[in-house]
Design brief:
This protein is 32% helix and 22% strand. By secondary structure, it is α/β, with parallel strands linked by helices. It has a seven-stranded parallel sheet, with helices on both faces.
Length: 189
C-alpha cells in the first residue's frame, strides 16, 4: 500500500464529483484534520459540518473556512454577491500537529475563478500541496481527467493520484492510468 503525504489537497474534475466524500474517507481513515478554505452555498450546509458528522472525529480536527459564502455559486460569483474579494494572501494552512495529516478540500475544479485573476489551481500552488484528483468513472471522464492532469502538470503541482467515483469502469480506469501516467488510488462505487 502506498504511503500518502501528510498534507493533501483534494480537488476534482468538476463540482459535485465527490470531493467531500473522498475527503471524509481520508479524514476518517487517517484521523486527519480537515480544512475547506472556500465554502460556497453556506445556506445549504457546509462541507466541514458534513465531514465532521460523517467521521465522528472531535471538533479540534476541523478548521474554519477562510471564506464562507452564502450563495451556491462559483467562489468568484458568490463573493461578488456579498461584495467580498477573495485574496490569495488571506490563505494560510491551519496549524496542526506535525505528526497529524491534513486534508484540504477545494471548491469546484482547478479552473474555478476565485477573483478576477486567480483560480483554484493558484490556491493549490500557494498552499504548496500535492493533489488527489477526484473524477467520475463514467463517460466523459477521460477528457476531463486528462485535461485536469495536464493543467496540474503545467502548473508544476505534484499529483498523488486519481480517485474515481461511480460504477466501476475498467476501460476508463485503464485509460486514465495509461494516458494520464498516474495511479488510480481507489474506485468508489
Amino acid at each position: 500500500m502506498m504511503a500518502l503525504p501528510k498534507r493533501i489537497f483534494v480537488t476534482g474534475t468538476s463540482t459535485d464529483i465527490g470531493k467531500t466524500v473522498v475527503s471524509a474517507i481520508l479524514v476518517a481513515g487517517l484521523r486527519a484534520h480537515y480544512w475547506k478554505p472556500v465554502q460556497t452555498g453556506r445556506s445549504l450546509g457546509t462541507d466541514t459540518v458534513w465531514v465532521a458528522e460523517h467521521t465522528g472525529l472531535p471538533a479540534l480536527h476541523f478548521h474554519k473556512e477562510t471564506y464562507s459564502l452564502e450563495a451556491p455559486l462559483s467562489p468568484h460569483a458568490a463573493a461578488a454577491m456579498e461584495q467580498v474579494t477573495i485574496a490569495l494572501d488571506a490563505f494560510a494552512l491551519p496549524a496542526v500537529p506535525s505528526d497529524a495529516s491534513l486534508i484540504v478540500e477545494g471548491a469546484g475544479g482547478l479552473m474555478v475563478p476565485l477573483n478576477d485573476s486567480a483560480y483554484m489551481v493558484d490556491l493549490i500552488k500557494r498552499l504548496d500541496l500535492p493533489v488527489i484528483l477526484v473524477a467520475s468513472s463514467e463517460l466523459g471522464t477521460i477528457n476531463h481527467t486528462l485535461l485536469s492532469l495536464l493543467e496540474l502538470r503545467r502548473q508544476a503541482v505534484p499529483v498523488v493520484g486519481v480517485v474515481m467515483n461511480g460504477p466501476r469502469n475498467a476501460g476508463n480506469r485503464d485509460a486514465i492510468e495509461r494516458y494520464g501516467e498516474v495511479p488510480v488510488l481507489a474506485e468508489i462505487e
